[in-house]
Amino acid sequence: MRSARPLLSLAEWPSLPSRTQHGHPSGSLSGPSQTDDLDYADDLRRALATLDRAFSHVPPAGPIDGYTYCYAPEDIEHLTGDPALVPAELVGYFALEVPDHWHEDQYATLWFGLTPKIIRLVINE
Predict the structure, then answer these.
(1) Which terminus of the chain is more solvent-facing, meaning fewer CB atoms within 10 Å of its CB: N or C?
(2) How far apart are CA 69 and CA 17, in angstroms?
(3) Contacts of 111 (CB under 8 A, 6+ apart)
(4) How many whole angstroms separate alpha carbon 106 and alpha carbon 63?
(5) What is the pTM of this model?
(6) Any residues with CB less than 8 A from the CB of 25 and at least 6 apart, and which?
(7) Neighbouring residues of 74: CB distance < 8 A, sequence distance ≥ 6
């Protein structure tokens, strides 16, 4: 099974330039305001918490007919269960896989359920 390489780890976010250096979000380059004091890492943590809440209602995918040439039966069993329990390596493999290995409705359901974990893999959180 392949594993996805993260683009940027959450630990690296605080080292990025602050928003006030770019005048964002107020558009001003004159200096920081109280609302600009938050760094990107705090924004990202809040966004992830919001993402978790938004997708918390997603039920398990249920029975699926995955492409068994690329997925072992135990991988398909993981994917049909609770999205929160799918191993990160399998999530990364699924995210990089072509959609024609699944029925269209199953693929959409899997993506919807795994979205928070896929985003976390991208940022290595």
Answers:
(1) N
(2) 45
(3) 118
(4) 9
(5) 0.65
(6) 19, 35, 36
(7) none
Residue given tokens 């398990």 in the structure block: 60
Least Cα distance to 93 among 33, 4, 21 occurs for 4
How many angstroms separate the CA atoms of 13 and 37, rounded? 14
pLDDT of residue 38: 57
Q: What is the mean pLDDT of each run of 10 residues along the chain (125 residues)?
A: 47 50 48 54 89 87 76 89 91 89 84 92 80
pLDDT value of residue 10? 52
Tell me the torsion sign for CA atoms 21, 27, 29, 30. Answer: negative
pLDDT at 39: 73
